[in-house]
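User: Run a structure prediction on this.
Assistant: Running it now.
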Amino acid sequence: MLAGTRDQAWHGTSRRSRQAQQDTDGLPITAMGHHDPDSQTVTLVLDSATANIAIYAITAHAQEREAHLREVQLHAQDLPEGSYGRRNRQAIADRETRITTRLRAIEHAYQTAIERDAAPESARPLRSLDGTAGMEIDLG
């Protein structure tokens, strides 16, 4: 820890930043996005390594949201029926469920995309896991 602090003070870098630079594989990063205001969709194009990192982060975030959802639901059970606190916890749980559903839909779309055969099927949108209209994911 002292060596890292010393390096940062003397050279403006730390061992961690040098190590991060050494861990890169030298391949270029591809991260592009396109927003279509008419369909209200965003299309992302990522290289494999960047996509893997993004999906890892999305999965971790979905797991955290699911854990929070369980905590909120558990706490809501102790509150009186019809109370403000219980209604508030239900609203929080509903919001966490919607967000988690979207995160899991992204994860599912990614898994579907990487598991396709060499001869891809025609591009088709996937419905979200909860079947809500307007939440299609373009896998093309």
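Residues 20 and 67 are 31 Å apart (CA to CA).
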